[in-house]
Specification:
Beta-Lactamase, 3 domains, six-stranded antiparallel sheet, 19 strands, elongated, alpha+beta
Length: 581
């Protein structure tokens, strides 16, 4: 083609190229070019075809005058197919006299083609992207100059199209990556398995533009795939044999499957479609593996809208599958933990009910035992022989210790159930300490200990529950006397001090010169049923709930029990209660 392009035509080409290069959206470029080409070269109609390499076809992306129809032709079929197949332009002045002309399009559309100017659209690598076709010049015939102008325009449009496709591909990749990250964040924060499967199914359908998605989980015990969440099937649970259908094939082989026409694939089982009334067209199915590489489930998406699933879709679903596998395992583990926790809670309730019942049953026979020993020791049934007094006194002391243990168990149960309701009232700490200490004087004397109460005069009253506070002090004095060797001293004291909240209060202390507690066990001694040394249980007795009761009682009062102790140097327990406002 040696004809010279006029300045006006060249300016027209540059204007169209400028408009096309200003667009990043491929659809806008495709819509713009045929209309502008028609105006530039005075054609009646124009069409822009794109190449579908996978199908070996070209199809009309834009065809002026045929807005509701898409023309598809095989490569080398008709003039446009031949240009797409050979990459060479064609100019025809009498279409029906040319054997290369395909009349089928005119027969379908009712349009009468007379002249044709058709040029290929190529990218920088000379790959054919499509074909630009003009029909029926309004004045005269298409000329070699028109062919050269349209070829020049097509060459520049090919570059603009390639750039737009690249931009669109990058935008799509970034969009998918962003969605993938959001989906990963969403599913990683969900621990309810049904809700997790629902989230995965919905987001996968949206991400891959599929009609339906299902996440199947492997039940290795029953050799089945199951899902309680499947789009389009309501809340029905699906269970299928591990070897059935496409999902079963992927679960057993661990290989992904991509099918463009389900009913032409012998591996597809149409029974589910028959039951549901759904028509499966295309399928993408990938395995879901755990950290050890074991297949724990299957991702299945059906019927991509207006297209077929691609290799990129498969890669995307595989990436999503890796994230989902971790989330599904976490959710299954959480379910197992919740079931175990429910069982433990049931056992804990049984334990509490048993302790509650046995404590009350033990109190019933203790009441008359303690009552009659008090009568006997008081001479209500006559004077006892000296040796009998010691025996009855031992019975009384043992009964009181048993009652104290029972009361501790009941307090422990009350605290454990969160049922402690403090009855606060103004409480005289020195008087309370003396009352508690008096109850232990005989025991302290028996163990050859000095038990003292040390409080200054004029201590203001505190806001406390006297009954619960008495129980806590009983445990502290009981422990102090129990673990202090003969000749030692136990002191119950109080003084004005500032509480942890900075408000004025009264600090209560129980100090002994006993065996002491190692520093690494200062926190552990307040745990339930804990003994600093198992041999101490055999030597001194007790079940290790006293200090747990003390801790919970004082904390219920809004304070904290602190301990200072060293082995062989004794122990001091202290806490502060608020003053009456």
């Amino acid at each position: 083609m040696g004809s010279e392009i006029t300045r006006d035509k060249l300016r027209g080409v540059l204007d169209i190229v400028h408009l096309a290069n200003a667009e990043n959206d491929l659809d806008n470029i495709l819509a713009l070019v045929p209309q502008q080409a028609c105006t530039l070269l005075e054609a009646d109609r124009a069409a822009l075809y794109l190449v579908d390499k996978a199908a070996g076809e070209i199809y009309s992306a834009v065809a002026l005058g045929l807005t509701d129809k898409t023309i598809r032709l095989k490569l080398h079929q008709g003039v446009t197919g031949m240009v797409a197949g050979t990459g060479k332009s064609i100019l025809i002045t009498d279409a029906y006299a040319d054997p290369r002309f395909y009349r089928g399009v005119d027969e379908i559309t009712g349009y009468r083609t007379q002249q044709i100017l058709c040029v290929p659209i190529k990218n920088r690598r000379e790959e054919i992207l499509g074909v630009l076709e003009l029909l029926n010049k309004r004045t005269g015939d298409f000329t070699p100059e028109d062919e050269e102008v349209l070829s020049l325009l097509a060459a520049q449009i090919g570059i603009a199209m390639a750039n737009a496709q690249l931009y669109d591909g990058l935008r799509t990749s970034l969009d998918r990556l962003s969605r993938l990250m959001k989906i990963g964040a969403a599913i990683s924060s969900e621990l309810d398995l049904d809700a997790l499967l629902r989230t995965i199914s919905q987001t996968t359908s949206h991400l891959l533009q599929a009609e339906r998605s299902t996440v199947f989980v492997v039940d290795s015990v029953k050799n089945e795939l199951w899902s309680r969440v499947a789009e389009g099937l309501g809340n029905k649970e699906i269970r299928i044999p591990l070897s059935a259908g496409i999902a079963g094939l992927v679960a057993t082989t661990g290989n992904p499957v991509r099918i463009s026409d389900a009913y032409r694939d012998p591996r597809f089982n149409p029974e589910v479609d028959k039951k549901t009334g759904y028509q499966t067209r295309s399928i993408l199915c990938v395995p879901m593996r755990n950290r050890r590489g074991q297949v724990i489930g299957v991702f299945q998406v059906l019927n991509k809208r207006d297209a077929e699933f691609t290799a990129l879709d498969e890669q995307l679903l595989a990436s999503l599958s890796s994230q989902a596998a971790v989330a599904v395992e976490n959710a299954k583990l959480y379910e197992e933990v919740q079931r175990t926790l429910a069982q433990l809670q049931a056992l804990d309730r049984m334990k509490t009910d048993f302790l509650n019942a046995i404590s009350h049953e033990l109190r019933t026979p203790l009441a008359p035992i303690l009552g009659y020993t008090e009568i006997l020791l008081g001479g209500g049934m006559g004077t006892l022989p000296a040796n009998a007094v010691r025996g009855v006194q031992a019975i009384a002391d043992s009964g009181k210790r048993l009652l104290n243990l029972i009361e501790s168990l009941l307090a422990f149960i009350r605290l454990d159930q969160g049922a402690m309701a403090l009855k606060r009232e103004p409480t005289d700490v020195p008087a309370l300490l003396r009352t508690v200490a008096n109850a232990f004087q005989s025991r302290a004397a028996e163990r050859k200990l000095t038990l003292q109460v040390a409080t200054p005069d004029g201590l203001p009253p505190v806001s406390a529950d006297p009954q619960e506070l008495t129980m806590a002090l009983n445990h502290l004095l009981d422990n102090a006397i129990k673990f202090t060797p003969a000749g030692g001293t136990v002191v119950a004291g109080a003084r004005q001090a500032t509480g942890e909240d900075g408000q004025p209060g009264v600090e209560i202390t129980v100090q002994d010169t006993g065996i002491g507690i190692p520093a690494d066990q200062h926190e552990k001694i307040f745990e339930r049923f804990y003994q600093a040394d198992s041999s101490l249980t055999r030597q001194y007795g007790g079940v290790g709930i006293g200090l747990a009761v003390v801790k919970q009682t004082i904390e219920a009062h809004g304070s904290h029990v602190a301990v200072e102790s060293e082995p062989s140097k004794g122990s001091t327990f202290r806490f502060t209660l608020p003053l009456v406002q």
